[in-house]
Amino acid sequence: MNKKRRKIYQKRSIGDSLISVITYVAFAIFAFVCIYPFYYIFINTISSNELSERGLIIFWPQQIHIQNYIEALKIKGLMNAAMVSVGRTVIGTFLTVIAAAFLGYMFTRESMWRRKLWYRFVIITMYFNAGVIPWYLTMRNLHLTNNFWGYILPAIVSPFYIILTKTFVESIPKELQQAAEIDGAGTLKIFFRIIMPVIKPIMATVAIFTAVGQWNAFQDTLLLMTDTKLYSLQFILYQYINQANSLRMLANSSSGAGMAQSLATVQTATSIRMTVTIIVVAPILLIYPIFQKYFVKGIMIGAVKG
Question: Are 221 and 231 within 8 A, CB to CB?
Fold first, then answer.
């Protein structure tokens, strides 16, 4: 009997080991597919521009230099666009998270006047969209064209984030709020003292979604902004991709007409595109490690009922 059990255990162990190996290999391939494009762009920005333009930089950087980043940062308007993107991301994320948290909390309170009506009024906007032209006319009538707040105000109330927050708040024991009400706490005090500390995971989740959306947005700049001082970094990237050849000449001329440059560091259309892409993408990638533990807990709320 013991020998049979050992054989069965060995067979199961071999099968489990094989499944584990296949799983690890599959995830390793998937991770490589996700990471390699960023790695490819990065190594091309620090390698010889001549080799990069010819498509010879595939896996390892060659003739490493950082001249591309130095020249890209000299291009007119790039730093100002970075400040605009940082400003809209920070302010927009903060206001959107607070609005989603507060409205999500209020829609769970039975004492709210016409709670279900207002909730449905907000949610119905997820299914109906007037289109770009009515949206633009509304923004123009509200004087939000060529206005920094045109980036912020339209995105403050988001039905999807309100639903996420409302679902999370509903999972909190009502006894917490009832105890605070018995002690004489009002709506705002309960929200800031009781609710907000508990719903940090879902707030972090909303913050990640909002920050990525604000940072990557460029269509609102294209439609609303004609003042170059209000251009966002993503819109600058959009322009750079479409006008890389002219920007290459601008970057080369800005380094000095009388200075001879080696072929390894002279700016090319490819080097401009890839360098600006890294400058635009890198900051938002830093957000995920900071909020990851909250993100997983927040987005899983409601998936499992205990």
Answer: yes
- The residue that leads in pLDDT, 266 or 203, is 203
Compare 43 and 281 and report the one with higher pLDDT.
43
Q: Which residues are CB-neighbours of 294 under 8 A, at least 6 positions away?
A: 200, 201, 203, 204, 205
What is the enclosing helix (H) or strand (E) of 42?
helix 2-45
In a domain? residue 304: no
Domain that holds residue 191: 78-230
**In-domain check, residue 236:** no
Task: In whole angstroms, give the CA distance from residue 57 to residue 203.
Answer: 42
Q: Indicate if 144 and 36 belong to the same structural domain.
A: no
CA gyration radius, the chain: 26
First to last CA, the chain: 41
pTM, 2 dp: 0.74
In this prediction, residue 261 carries a pLDDT of: 46
Q: Supply the pLDDT for residue 90.
A: 92
Nearest Cα neighbor of 46 from 70, 69, 72, 65 is 65
Domain assignment present for residue 284? The answer is yes
Q: Which two tokens stand for residue 20?
A: 């584990």
Q: Note whether 179 and 98 are same-domain residues.
A: yes
Contacts (Cβ under 8 Å, ≥6 apart) of 251:
71, 72, 74, 75, 267, 272
Q: Do 224 and 250 fall within a single domain?
A: no
- Please tell me the distance from the alpha carbon of residue 166 to that of residue 169, in angstroms, as a whole number: 5
Contact 220, 151 (CB under 8 A): yes
Please indicate, yes or no, whether residues 172 and 202 belong to a single structural domain of this protein: yes
Q: Are residues 146 and 6 in the same domain?
A: no
